[in-house]
Specification:
The complex is a heterodimer of chains A (864) and B (233).
Chain A: H1 26-38, H2 41-80, E1 84-88, H3 94-102, E2 106-119, E3 124-134, E4 144-146, H4 150-153, E5 159-163, H5 164-169, E6 177-180, E7 183-193, H6 199-204, E8 207-211, H7 215-218, E9 228-234, H8 241-254, E10 258-261, H9 262-305, H10 307-315, H11 320-350, H12 353-357, H13 371-396, H14 418-439, H15 442-472, H16 480-487, H17 496-527, E11 535-541, H18 545-554, E12 559-573, E13 576-577, H19 591-594, E14 596-601, E15 609-614, E16 628-632, H20 633-638, E17 646-651, E18 654-666, E19 677-679, E20 690-695, H21 700-713, E21 718-721, H22 722-775, H23 780-817, H24 826-853, H25 856-860
Parallel strand pairs in A: 3-8, 5-7, 14-19, 16-18
Antiparallel strand pairs in A: 1-9, 1-10, 2-3, 2-6, 2-9, 4-7, 5-8, 6-7, 11-20, 11-21, 12-13, 12-14, 12-17, 12-20, 15-18, 16-19, 17-18
Helix pairs in contact in A: 1-11, 2-9, 2-11, 2-13, 2-22, 9-13, 9-17, 9-22, 11-13, 13-14, 14-15, 15-17, 15-23, 16-23, 17-22, 17-23, 17-24, 22-24, 23-24
Chain B: E1 2-15, E2 18-31, E3 35-39, H1 46-53, E4 61-66, E5 69-70, H2 76-86, E6 87-90, H3 102-112, H4 119-128, H5 144-157, E7 162-166, H6 174-191, E8 194-199, H7 202-205, E9 210-215, E10 218-224, H8 226-232
Parallel strand pairs in B: 3-8, 3-9, 6-7, 7-8
Antiparallel strand pairs in B: 1-2, 1-4, 4-5, 9-10
Classes of the chains: A alpha+beta (864), B alpha/beta (233).
């Protein structure tokens, strides 16, 4: 039907002058927000409790980053212990020696190398990092020792400083002796900390300091030994070190020397640890995102309860935007409180971070309050709370005043609402920007954001699928209590999606971490099983080759492999040297010319190698023939090398011309000697070389006996015991894993808080129902059973989803990254599953107890 | 003067692919200062009609003019402004804001208009409905009758030109209903407000000057009551 002629237009509509103008101001919005929230304050606080931990994690990490920057600036000199450090891994030629001697007002010299040491008292042997020192190094900071005086006194006598954990491991004390090479040193003190040393570096290679003037007597500094030479300089008068090294750089580069200054150290350490804090921030950010989903879910339920109030306000003349603002103000207020609590908690947690990170950070971390970090955390907390709360808040605009007459609120989350899509877009943009802020790399940012979306998407999809399946295949034959508990998974106001996403993601994190750790350890254990070698003897001089082999046989150990190794440098490729290459027009990298190559020669491929291109040349056929070498495929591709390219190597002074004859694929994960470059037989036999012998020991005792005999007879030979490597790796993974678990813990606890908040919120939803059931005669036990079953289903589904996802991720990592057999340790997974189910049920039951205590009348009257 | 003019108003809903006509070609007008009832059985469309008259919803076709303002052309926010200026409401289930005290509930419409010094006015209104001492109680702490009286005080707080009451005694016992009805008519007379009452209670309807009977979405009768005839005389 057509409308009759228009009588009046809004443009004609004038406000009646006899009435006051329509002008409820901003202050009224705040007043209404306060009035509306004051009776719900504890509930609102509960909503934002989900973000408290996320904010706390980020404030703690930001504070750590802030303090770490200041600490690195303040302690950088102490990290290298001098104004300038120059190092090389080959013996210094006389003309360079003159240059090195001309630098600095004070200088120290250090030679470091891997070697076995022997504790006579306990007959223990261990591969360590020997540092032979001369001079007053360190000039900044100190060698922290026990007793303190040992840091200085060991330099004047045949004494050694031994890493404190080594002393503990081998039950040695100050005053005992330790045999290094051919001579014994008195242990002057326990080394607690040296410049730049971390707990992890001490685990990998525990350090033993000896005076340099006794190095020769040890017999360990023979030609061919792999020794690193370091020179430390201190300037008493101010000198522009950066200008000085700029002047020295071409010469140092040419001669294969490296240098390090305080500024370099600041930059490098700062970069390394800003990477660490960025990584930790992202882990904290995931916890925050989880919390935000909790907030969005809680606000959604809160808004549903407020439909009546909003309809009344709309009836009385409140505009949609005013109603929206009344609730937005509440969210901002409560987010501010939550963020401030989070920031305070973060500042407290920061006090504990040095304990968590002490093994990975080389500086003393101060824990002063970082106001920028607190500010950043609070702003982030408010912003992200608003962003996620907007999802339910935008629906508020559509609440009709008609609801006062008939409550017909429909869940207005239809996809047609453009505002919702705008909010989704904003959330995505925010996640992307925040990640980019941390990573500053578009590709990594994209993958991180996509990874988050995929993980959340999979979990949400599984939750939806579960709800659909339960509804579709509902077990009608089950008893009422089971059916009621199960049906609660898909009934209105259910918490299924939010709980599966939050708890599932937390479970996924923890289980994946466990899996990776056990897989890495398992991979090494596996490589040590069967007939694989589990002990590597290296630095065997050519003259010792037969004797070492004989000693192994004497101890009934098989010689699985005996490999000669020749050290060399690359002089040129296709006639181009390190000085003439141009990175722009060639794939060659300058690093290819400055590194040292450890090369072997043999006539056959090993089990870990596969020829991928070219022809394998077992030996040179005549002295005049240019040898055809084999190069590892991946490295060759990175350097853009082709079959037939020529490579000239500097074999300790002698130039050896070669042609690339083949490319090989190498399985680096095998415990055996693997090489980038393999020469054919008949070229390097007379070059200075050392040998590596691989054997297999069957027990710790056999290993200890053989090592003792080796150290006594061949002190220069170093031994890597795979058992020890396993222990060390376990130790390192344990230390790094602790840091990651500590951060992942925020996600888990956030998940639990979201769980508690969701359960408590659902109390208001379920209270009427439980009371009605009680009124109809349900016993306390029946109500408890229904609740327990509902939360058991939720906990079981959430944890099971997380575990299944973690198994998938672990499988993918095992197959594609670690290239190992995927294996599962079921026990930790069962424990995680049981714990989460138990916690969920416990929280649900504690919650419902409050309902059971109240009289049905009290609840029915609406006073609950 | 005509305060409410309804011309050819229909309201239809789409439900499972079918068109459901709730109101069909409704025509009537209401003079300022009069009282009238809309009476009909459950599901007859009377509450829908009230919602349209008060600007809570939009008609599918037809014209609704309230105080010479055509509501069909206004958006929801503009209609909210009209409601705040000219309309008062009384609901069957009271519709008080549960988080506001009785006094604050009464103050809200005046606050929305930006009026000052409203507390004494609100207290005065509460006193008129006999709840001066319950101003600081929350709705949950009041009985049904008391809540409806607060709702009444709120309805009159913006000095409305027209008062819409939807089954105002539907949730109350007989004795309390009597008192509330007395108050509604008393305050209405005092303020000279137009009263539109939706009810299925014929006794209550007979207290107004005119009754529109509605059935199946159509007006079946529109006649003055004895009270209305007295008034016309």
């Amino acid at each position: 039907m057509k409308r009759p002629e228009q009588v009046n237009k809004m443009s004609d509509y004038k406000i009646d002058d006899s009435k006051a103008p329509f002008r409820a101001g901003v202050s009224w919005l705040f007043l209404m927000a306060w009035r509306d929230s004051r009776r719900n304050f504890s509930r609102l606080l509960l909503f934002v409790s989900s973000i408290i931990l996320g904010i706390a994690a980020l404030v703690a990490i930001y504070s750590l980053g802030d303090n770490l920057r200041k600490d690195i600036d303040a302690q950088a000199a102490g990290l290298i212990g001098a104004d300038l450090e120059i190092s090389t891994n080959r013996a210094v030629e006389p003309q360079m020696k003159n240059l090195l001697d001309s630098l600095g007002d004070r200088k120290s010299e250090e030679r470091s190398f891997a070697s076995m040491i022997f504790f006579p008292k306990t007959q223990g042997t261990r591969l360590v990092q020997i540092k032979a020192l001369q001079g007053g190094f360190p000039y900044y900071g100190s060698l922290e020792t026990d007793p303190i005086a040992a840091g200085t006194s060991f330099r004047n006598s045949k004494s050694a400083l031994v890493d404190k954990t080594l002393l503990l491991q081998y039950n040695a004390k100050v005053g005992d002796s330790v045999k290094i090479g051919d001579i014994s040193f008195v242990i002057a003190g326990a080394l607690l900390k040296a410049p730049g040393q971390t707990g992890i570096s001490a685990s990998v290679a525990p350090v033993v300091y000896i005076p340099l003037n006794f190095l020769h007597q040890t017999g360990l500094s023979q030609k061919g030994s792999r020794i690193n030479y370091k020179y430390y300089y201190k300037y008493d008068t101010p000198v522009n070190i950066e200008q000085l090294v700029k002047k020295l750089e071409p010469r140092l580069d040419k001669e294969g020397f490296n240098y390090n200054t305080v500024e370099n150290q600041k930059e490098n350490t700062g970069r390394a640890f800003s990477d660490l804090t960025k990584f930790l921030s992202l882990v904290g950010f995931i916890a925050l995102l989880l919390g935000c989903i909790g907030v969005a879910s809680a606000i959604h339920i809160y808004m549903k309860e407020k439909v009546g109030s909003i309809a009344i306000l709309r009836c009385l003349g409140v505009k949609a935007i005013q109603a929206f603002l009344i609730y937005l103000i509440q969210i901002v207020g409560i987010a501010l409180i939550g963020s401030v609590i989070g920031a305070i908690l973060g500042t407290v947690i920061q006090q504990f971070l040095p304990i968590v990170l002490k093994d990975v950070i080389p500086v003393e971390i101060t824990t002063s309050i970082s106001w920028p970090a607190i500010g950043q955390g609070i702003v982030l907390g408010i912003f992200i709370s608003i962003l996620f709360a907007l999802l339910p808040l935008v629906s508020l605009r559509k609440i009709s005043p008609l609801n006062t007459l008939r409550l017909s609120f429909s869940d207005d989350t239809t996809n047609s609402d453009r505002a919702r899509w705008l909010v989704y877009g904003l959330i995505l943009l925010f996640i992307f920007s925040f990640t980019w802020q941390q990573l500053r790399d578009w590709k990594e940012t994209f993958f991180f954001t996509a990874g988050i979306l995929v993980a959340f998407g999979i979990l949400a999809a599984i939750a939806k699928l579960t709800m659909w399946s339960v509804r579709k295949f509902f077990p009608s034959s089950w008893s009422y209590l089971w059916r009621q508990g199960l049906a609660n998974l898909y009934r209105p106001n259910n918490q299924t999606i939010i709980l599966i996403v939050s708890i599932g993601l937390g479970t996924f994190f923890i289980c994946t971490l466990f899996s990776i750790q056990s897989m890495l350890l398992g991979r090494i254990s596996l490589s040590a099983s069967g007939n694989q070698p589990n002990m590597v003897l290296f630095d065997i001089q050519t003259a010792q080759k037969e004797q070492v082999s004989a000693l192994a046989k004497e101890y009934r150990l098989p010689v699985l492999q005996q490999v000669p190794i020749v050290n060399m440098r690359l002089q040129s490729i296709n006639g181009r040297t390190g000085e003439t290459i141009n990175n722009k027009d060639s794939g060659l990298r300058r690093g290819a010319f400055t590194r040292e190559y450890r090369v072997t020669y043999r006539s056959v491929l090993t089990a870990s190698e596969k020829l991928t291109e070219g022809t394998w040349h077992p030996a040179v056929e005549g002295a005049a023939q240019t040898p055809h070498i084999s190069v590892e495929e991946g490295w060759a591709r990175r350097q853009k090398l082709k079959i037939g390219d020529t490579m000239v190597f500097n074999v300790q002074g002698a130039m050896v011309s070669t042609i690339i004859g083949s490319f090989r694929e190498v399985d680096w994960s095998r415990v055996q000697t693997n090489f980038l470059v393999v020469f054919p037989k008949g070229v390097l036999e007379d070059a200075p070389q050392f040998n590596v012998l691989l054997t297999r020991v069957t027990s710790d005792e056999a290993s200890a006996r053989f090592q003792q005999a080796m150290v006594k007879s061949f002190p220069n030979v170093s031994i890597i015991d795979l058992g020890l490597v396993l222990k060390t790796l376990d130790d390192i993974l344990g230390k790094i894993g602790f840091v990651i678990r500590f951060m992942a813990g925020f996600s888990i606890v956030t998940g639990l808080i979201v769980l508690i908040a969701s359960v408590l919120i659902s109390k208001y939803q379920r209270i009427q129902e439980s009371v009605l059931l009680r009124t109809l005669g349900a016993s306390r036990r029946q109500i408890l059973t229904i609740t327990a079953l509902e939360y058991f289903f939720l906990g079981a589904l959430a944890s099971l989803t997380g575990i299944i996802l973690s198994l998938l991720a672990s499988w993918a990592l095992a197959t594609y990254t670690f290239k190992t057999v995927f294996s599962v340790s079921p026990l930790p997974l069962i424990i995680v599953f049981a714990l989460i189910c138990l916690l969920t049920v416990a929280i649900g039951l504690i919650n419902i107890r409050g309902v059971l205590k109240r009289s049905p009348l009290e609840v029915l009257r609406g006073e609950a | 003067m005509t305060i409410l003019n309804i011309q050819s108003v229909s309201k239809t809903y789409q439900s499972t692919g079918r068109t459901l006509t709730v109101l069909d070609n409704i025509n009537f007008s209401v003079e300022s200062g009069t009282t009238m009832s809309i009476v009909g059985p459950s599901g007859s469309g009377k509450t829908t009609l009230l919602g349209l008259c008060a600007g809570l919803d939009r008609s599918s076709t037809g014209i609704i003019e309230l105080h010479n303002v055509r509501l069909d052309d206004l958006n929801e926010d503009q209609r909210a402004q009209v409601r705040n200026q000219y309309v008062g409401f009384i609901f069957q289930n009271f519709q008080l804001m549960p988080t506001l005290t009785a006094l604050e509930n009464v103050m809200v419409p005046m606050e929305l208009r930006g009026e000052k010094k409203i507390k004494p006015i609100a207290m005065d209104l509460l006193e008129k409905v006999g709840l001066a001492d319950r101003g600081h109680h929350y709705p949950a702490q009041l009985s049904g009758g008391e809540q409806q009286r607060v709702s009444l005080a709120r309805a009159f707080s913006n000095k409305p030109r027209i008062l819409f009451a939807d089954e105002p005694t539907g949730s109350l016992d007989a004795e309390t209903s009597e008192k509330v009805i007395e108050l509604i008519f008393g305050l209405n007379k005092e303020a000279g407000t137009t009263l539109v009452l939706v009810t299925h209670d014929n006794d209550l309807a007979s207290k107004t000057q005119r009754i529109i009977r509605i059935k199946g979405g159509r007006i079946v009768s529109d006649a003055p009551t004895l009270k209305g005839e007295e008034h016309n005389c």
